[in-house]
Amino acid sequence: MAKKVLVCNPIAEEGVEKLEDAGLEVEKEFGMSKEELTEKVPPYHALVVRSSTKVREPTLDAAENLEVIGRPGIGLDNIDVDYAEDKGVAVHNTPTATTISVAELTMTHILATYRDIIAGTNSLREGEWIKSELASNEIHDKTLGVIGFGNIGQAVAERAHAFGMDILAYDVLDIEEPEPAEMVDLDRIFEESDVITVHVPHMEATHHMVSTEEFEKMKENAALVDCSRGGVVDEDALYEALKSGEIRFGSKDVFEEEPPEDNPLFELDNFHATPHIGAQTEEGQIRAGTQAADHIIDELQ
Question: What is this structure's pTM?
Answer without folding.
Answer: 0.89
